[in-house]
Amino acid sequence: MTTPPLDLFLAAPRGFCAGVDRAIKIVEMALEKWGAPVYVRHEIVHNRFVVDRLRDLGAVFVEELSDCPDDRPVIFSAHGVPKSVPSQAQARNMVYVDATCPLVSKVHIEAERHHQSGLQIIMIGHAGHPETIGTTGQLPPGEVLLVETPEDVARVDVRDPEKLAFVTQTTLSVDDTADIVAALRARFPRIVGPHKEDICYATTNRQEAVKAMAPRIDAMLVVGAPNSSNSRRLVEVAARAGCGYAQLVQRAADIDWRALDGMRSLGLTAGASAPEELVDEVIAALRTRYEVTVHEVETATENVEFKVPRALRAPA
Fold first, then answer.
1. Fewest CB within 10 A of the end CB: N or C in the chain?
2. For residue 255, which of 228, 295, 207, 290 has the smallest C-alpha distance?
């Protein structure tokens, strides 16, 4: 019995971004420097495969600093933390390393600068996401107001409409965010925006690759975790760009093969916290069912690299 043909369009870029790569490296280097266990507050990145591998090496993942002992190092996740967290760690004389993505830290600095200028901040983001919690936690209560949709903009209650700035979560849909920014500028003409787009280069690049593939394919697979904001946005972007079916899978075992029945062209990408080996696993699974021809769709070249903190580069 012959296997049916499948044109597989592979997004480039895809998978790990520089911030995720740095965060994982921080945990690995901390384990090398201080030995196990090293504690990590929240998942270092939103990918179970990555977290499980680091756990096997000796990382202990907890949700709160109160779950960590005083005498072991603790790492803060790539999503960033409220200011109160490092303050608590200092009060307990803990050794800690901040793995916050530098592009998230840039948003924190923007928010602080606007606050010092007397502006109240509106953040475009998802309620409950660790990055949103970390950014709103940079300033006193009430200084950062969260909006998720253009409808939220119509309802938001500000202190002074003449003294506002906005920032965004780094992993949002570029198109959705543009609609919300337009609503903000329409209601608050004097609102101050970021000098440079807050949505990170990796999120933008991965969405652009999906948009380029979507009209050419019957279906899209996005490798990523269900709690990964940027991975979920890729599914939404694919659907909006004309792809008839898009599915988020953590790994090959999660593929709904019945939904792909009859498909002859398939797009494949991965969120910024998904390792390439999971993409390879999906391709291998496709090859067991189809005669696969791979077409790479490259829309950008990435060469960004972030240094790890100096504390990890110094000898123990």
1. N
2. 290
CA distance 272 to 293: 25
Helices (H), the chain: 18-34, 48-57, 84-91, 102-116, 130-136, 150-155, 174-187, 201-213, 229-240, 276-287, 310-313
How many domains does the chain contain in total?
Answer: 3
Tokens 């021809």 appear where?
293
Residue-number span of the structural domain to which 159 is assigned? 102-187
pLDDT, position 163: 98
Domain end point (choices 82, 101, 120): 101
Task: Please say whether the beta carbons of 312 and 97 come within 8 A.
Answer: yes
Q: Is 131 a catalytic residue?
A: yes
Point out the catalytic residue in the list 32, 131, 143, 298.
131
Q: What is the mean pLDDT of residues 139-154?
A: 97
316 within a domain of the structure (yes/no)? no
Q: Are 161 and 188 in contact (CB under 8 A)?
A: yes
pLDDT at 196: 74
pTM of the model: 0.93
The CB density around residue 163, as the number of other CB atoms within 10 Å, is 16
Beta strand 5-12 pairing with 59-62: unpaired
Express each pLDDT in 285-316 by its tens digit: 999 999 999 999 999 999 999 999 988 887 66
CATH code assigned at 117:
3.40.1010.20
13 preceded by a cis bond (ω within 30 of 0)? yes
Q: What are the residues facing 144 on neighbouring strands?
A: 121
Cβ atoms within 10 Å of 196's Cβ, excluding its own: 7
Q: Which tens digits make up the pLDDT trace of 182-202? A: 999 999 999 999 977 788 999
285/33 Cα distance (integer angstroms):
38
Contact (CB, 8 A) for 266 and 213 = no
